[in-house]
Design brief:
There is one protein chain. The chain has about 70 residues and is mainly beta. The chain has no helices and 5 strands. A hairpin with a 4-residue loop joins strand 2 and strand 3.
Length: about 70
Amino acid sequence: MQATIATFDPATFAGTALLDDGVELPFTGEALRGSGLRLLRPGQRVRLEVTGEGSTLEVRRLQIITLT
């Protein structure tokens, strides 16, 4: 699933991602753990690994989308 970073707090590594359907989904610093990411900026496109569905949707991991 792809999204755009809406907010990011570099102190806690938490923020929100805006899904392509307009839903804003919060993420915690745990979603960045192990990804090597230290900084995200609003407007940056990311790929999300999520669990659950509907109101239980939760971000498990974030990755920056790169051009290959």
